[in-house]
């Protein structure tokens, strides 16, 4: 074999070394019910849980490979070969007139009844879908399923009930199909075109070329057709009669395969080669597929045997021939190249699908044989996955791929009690897939869904990183040794006289040395309750603490008003004022943080799969419209019974309830929709896979890089920016005179140029005076925190400033924090 023919598949062996894995996978939910285009329903994608080991024979040697079935979709007619469109959506067409669009998880997006028998469809590079119906009808749709009958062709001898050939599209995207002796097409301007073969000659084979199509007539003549014209014709030798055609290579020519005979013509009609093979195929050749390469390779299968062979496009040389044991022959559209995985997929009449290394001529893995119904067509979905049609069932399957996971080239980690870490900082995966995290001893060390590792007490444990993406497997076991605290940092309290704006102020300050651990201190570690500042500080074993964001302190549920981030998770959204954030690499950031939740279902964040929530852990007002997420920081239950709630556990919807005070899962969240937003709940069903992402911007709607912030408190307004006064409370969304103009007790936080943090309180000052005070204290950046009766500060075991009320939250600092 020439080495050049191997280049396009050099990575396939490494990708497809597959071993057995027993994992469960859940399919997609149906839209269900009666469709808009007919009275019968195409049934939903059916969840399957079918992990098997299958022995496949490659050149006489057996190899065990693993397989996984993802989902099944049941149609109400016999399916043509499926098509994976450029967007990743799936197009499936039945012979009795149904056209359906599915997402890559098998969920039906749209279903159309053409009320006509249909031929096999085709999609061009522009995403235009074409199919032909009885009586020479042409249908055209876009990727959203919009469109319809584009035209009906009339010519001498046309019969209404005759069925056309399958569609093909040439290299320029022009659709072609054959009807009796006519080759019909549609120009880019939408004009109907027809090229007629001689009277009495029917079209036997049709193959798309670079420009136009190649046609094999029943009279043994090969025709090159473009639009309305027959460009050239060539009478074939007797040995080539009944040949299968394959075209579309870079040269624009066409190859013919018939028994032991093989030949090729150039685009201009000149003979490229003719030759004879060593052995004829059992039952003749079928399903030839072009595999691009330096000069191209054609792979063809036997109609009634198990053989599959590859031929060089340049000269017809046979590169390899193998036997796919148990295939039982191959249908007319049974082969499809998967260029991303470096394989050729072959669907046998036995129902089995074979993945073949196109350069080496070996079977890498076999899927199926679970049904005696022939696989009528197969198409790759990427990453080794594929879909294939078996009668009225579309099946998505593929191999299980192993993901290598490493952590900073370290076999184990020593973690001092005063240090947390973000595991993903130094985690490497050979494939970018979804993973989960767990500890085998949470009493020693904890890890959350954001990979935040928190030591609890000295001792040994193991952390596990498990691949959760369907079709993949992999695990990292990382031993953790939790040791004694390593930091020797101390906070310092000072009472300072400061002159600002011509007035003297007594300011209480606590200096926090750079690098001292910090977290958000929540009353009773929940959102929506209150506790004394001193109790919060002691619960977290803090060396210093200060009150945090504003909260409802006048009779309602004491929920925060500002944004709160804990352990990398947004636990409350305020979207007013300014926030301070602390990152994993020790930086302190300050900005007008604005947070948006963007949700999706079944792997899609686009309509109709998208959803949103604009609050987190905030009780909806009675009779109002709201979309709110509730996390475990809310507590064990919602605490109210309004609207429709969607319970999500481990990324899957487990319950949908109306007007119920539901439990909040420890490994998930609850979405609550009320009023006009309640319609959003219809996008979820029990079993729906759910995910969301957080979008962070500032007040000017510019994205901000806060993904590495582990702790944040939003309050404000901003007092100092880059060493200069920066007071604009109205611009940040404040309207109360307590912030705009009045003098009151104040709490605040500043950051010096060297990264030192100072927390401070003053008994009475306006916001503008507070800004000047912060500058006198050496602030490079500074912001206001909740004040008045909430203002309080704690250091070294005692209160420095005593709040006049219980508070909802704060910031706590220390070397022995109990996170």
The whole-number mean of residue pLDDT values reads 88
List the strand order in the largest sheet. 45-46-65-64-66-62-63
Model regions low in confidence, pLDDT < 50 over at least 5 residues: 1-65
Strand content: over 45%
β-strand number: 69
Query: What is the structural class?
Result: mainly beta
The total of helices stands at 4
The description of the largest β-sheet is: 7 strands, antiparallel
Helix content class: under 10%
Which structural traits does this protein have?
single chain; mainly beta; 4 helices; 3% helix; elongated; disordered N terminus
Q: Could you explain the architecture of this structure?
A:
It contains four helices and 69 strands. The strands form 17 sheets. Strands 45-46-65-64-66-62-63 form a seven-stranded antiparallel beta sheet. It has a five-stranded antiparallel beta sheet with strand order 1-2-33-32-31, with no helix packed on it. The longest helix is centred in the C-terminal third of the chain and has 10 residues, at 767-776. By secondary structure, the chain is mainly beta. It is elongated, with a radius of gyration of 34 Å.
